[in-house]
Amino acid sequence: RLTTGIIRVIGNGVTIRNGTLITNGITSDGGAFKLANLSVKSAGNPLGFFIEPSGDIIVNDCVFKDIPGIVLDFYRGNGGTVKNSRFIGNRIGISIQHSNNVLIQKNMFIRNTSVGVNLWNEDGGGVNNNIIRNNYFIGNKLGIRMLANPSLISRLTMDGNRILGNKIASSSQSGLLMEVICINNSPCPAQRMVVAGNLFNRNGF
Fold this sequence. Notes:
It is a single chain. By secondary structure, this protein is an all-beta fold. It has strands spanning 2-3, 7-9, 14-23, 26-28, 33-42, 49-52, 57-60, 63-65, 70-75, 78-83, 86-88, 92-97, 100-105, 108-110, 115-120, 131-133, 136-138, 142-148, 162-164, 167-169, 176-180, 194-196, 199-201. The radius of gyration is 16 Å and the shape is globular.
């Protein structure tokens, strides 16, 4: 059981595992790190994001509960895997912003008050080739939300993302909300998207 203010992971290949972690956030200096078999809770004064990996992160068999901010905020990174974990009663479970090649697979998102998984090309940056696959969403405000803003530079953003085989039920609003904004003289975002094999049941709209 570890209780602290904010944890900063320094170096590459660090693993935190097995137990209860009560903290106000985890940041890294860019190295890869792993969270495994943890129950993670807020110490009471979190940042807007709870975990913001600047490098590759692997999350496996963890439970994140009652965190008032964004639990996992992928911002300006490349890669990352979140599997077999539960996100319960948080504000936002996972937000992928300005990051590519993230795999979100076989997780449960339960009663999160804003959204289970958020895709947003913040600052017009790349949010490409991410996979949201075989997850279970129940009782969230929104299951999955995608906001694709026009790129600020001449390249595609929100390209090649895949939303596959998820089960989304009892969302108070949309099970899957996709907003794509295009403007003249700029590449239209959200190219080559694949949304397939998902099951929607009793969502708000």
